[in-house]
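Let us practice reading a record.
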Amino acid sequence: MKEPNLFEDEIKNSETYRIIKETTRRVKNDVQSQVQQTLRERWGVGAAQQQAPQTTVPAQGRELTPEEQEAARQAQKAEAEAAQQAAAAAKEAKKKAKKAKKEPEEVPAGMKAVRKKSVVPFYAIAGTVLGYALLFPLYSVAHFLILASLTAIVGFTCFKFCKGKTVYEPIEEGEAQAEKKSRTGFPDVDQLLEEGDRYIEQLDLANDMIEDETVSAQIDRMAEVSRKIFDYVEAQPQKAGQIRKFMNYYLPTTLKLLNSYFMLKKQGVDGKNITDSIVEIERILQTIVKVYEKQLDALFQDEALDISTDVAVLENMMEQETFK
C-alpha cells in the first residue's frame, strides 16, 4: 500500500495549487472551444460533437486542417506550461517549508534562549552498563572492552538524535546590563549620559505642562543645548569631567524651578508672594539659558586653542615665504 504523502496533500490543498489548476482548466476549455468553433465554421459539426469535452478530431476520420493542428498544439503547450507552473509552485512551497524549519524562532522580548540537554543519552548509557553487568562478567577484559564499545555506540547514537530542546528564560537584571551596548566604552560616562537623557525627558515633560510661550521657548532652547552637550561628550568621553557641575547642579536646579513655576501658575491667584516668585523664576530662566550655552562653548576650548595654534603657525610660514 502506498504511504500517504503529507507534503503532496499540503500542496494540493494550497491556494497556489488551486489557482494553477483552475487556470489550466480555463485554458484547456478555451482551446477546445476555439477548435470546436473552427469545426462548426468550416465543416458544420453538430451540437452533439460540440458538447463532447475531448473532441479535437472530426468524424469520418478526416485529417485536421493546419488551423486545427495549431489549435491542438496550443492546447498541449498550455497544458505543459500549467504542469510546469504547478511543479515550480510545489518546489517553491517545499523550499519555503524547509527554510521555515531551519530558521530559529524569534526570542520574546526580555527573554533568552537556553538549550537544555536531553537526559535520554545518560539514562541509555546507564541502562546499557547495568544490563550488560547483569548478563555478563565485567571482570573479563574482553567483556569490559565490549561494554566500552557498546556504551560508546549507544551514547553517540543518543546524543545525535536526542539533542534536547530550547526553552526561554527571563533575562536577569545583571545580564541585561551586560548585554546592553556601551555608548562610549566607559561605564561611568555611559551612566552619566543615561542620567542626562532622563533630565532631557523631564525638561520636555515640563515644557508640555507649561503654557507660557516665552518660558516654553526657553525650555526648548535649554533642551536643545543639553542634547548638543551630551552628544559632544558621547563623541569625546574624555570631556565628561567638564560637565559634572552642569549635571550635578544646573540641570536639577532648573527642573526644580520649572516644577515650582508650574505649581505657582496652577494656583490662579494674583497674590504678592505667588506673583513675585513667578516673575523671579521667569527672570532667572533667561540667565540659565545663557549658562547652558556657555557650558557648550566651554567644551570647545581645546579645539579653539588648537585652531589658534594652527593659524599662528600657518601665518608664520606665510610670512617667511613672503620674505623669501
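A brief commentary: The radius of gyration is 42 Å.
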